[in-house]
Design goal:
The complex is a heterodimer of chains A (55) and B (131).
Chain A lengths: L1 E7 L5 E11 L4 E10 L4 E11 L2
Antiparallel strand pairs in A: 1-2, 2-3, 3-4
Chain B lengths: L12 E8 L16 E9 L10 E10 L2 E10 L5 E10 L5 E4 L2 E2 L5 E2 L12 H6 L1
Antiparallel strand pairs in B: 1-6, 2-3, 3-4, 4-5, 5-6, 7-8
Chain lengths: 55, 131
């Protein structure tokens, strides 16, 4: 699953981001990768791993 | 480095969001079904240091609602203890496997995505209210 987004203000400053979520281990684990970029070219990456919890 | 804030009070308004589901399921089940559930874990900023102070606890809830789904997630920075939470509804678009963030309410109270190509304002609901 990939979530794409764009934030922009009245001055034209913007931020682009994407979240990529991928299931592993028969759906018991979800990896997360977040990429963020703004109009200055500065970028940031966050990665993580989450475990499915019982309902 | 500023952090991304998806709340509508942020000067940067939520303009557009789309979810692309790349899974290829050959069943009638919605393609987001495998993701439905509650997850917890941790994430960290990827950089060239071995610094672990950028680690944060992450909690994600993905649930169905009507034809689309709902994502609720929160993060807590371990270093500062600061937490942030976000909730977004995604609704189907005309294209297969693509869902859009629901940002406006129709006459029946249902949420719909903004569509700038159809004359919707190009900024978020806050700007729409000013218009």
């Amino acid at each position: 699953m990939k979530v794409l987004g764009l934030l922009i203000n009245d001055q034209g400053e913007f931020e682009l981001f994407s979240y990529t979520r991928t299931l592993h281990d028969d759906g018991q684990t979800m990896s997360l990768r977040y990429l963020h970029l703004d109009e200055t070219g500065e970028q940031r990456v966050i990665e993580g791993e989450l475990r499915r919890q019982a309902d | 480095m500023k952090t991304l804030d998806l709340t509508l009070s942020n000067p940067l308004r939520w303009l557009a969001g789309a979810v692309i589901l790349a899974s290829s399921l050959g069943t009638l089940a919605a393609d987001f079904d495998p993701f439905v559930g509650h997850y917890t874990g941790s994430a960290r900023v990827v950089d060239n240091t071995a610094d672990n102070t950028n680690t944060r606890q992450v909690s994600v809830d993905i649930s169905k609602h009507k034809k689309g789904f709902h994502i609720n997630w929160s993060t807590t920075k371990l270093k500062t203890g600061k937490s942030k939470g976000y909730t977004i509804d995604f609704v189907p678009t005309k294209r297969n496997h693509i869902y859009a963030a629901a940002q406006k309410t129709n006459v029946f109270g249902g949420k719909k995505p903004l569509d700038p190509l159809q004359g919707d304002p190009t900024c978020g609901p806050g700007s729409q209210a000013r218009a």
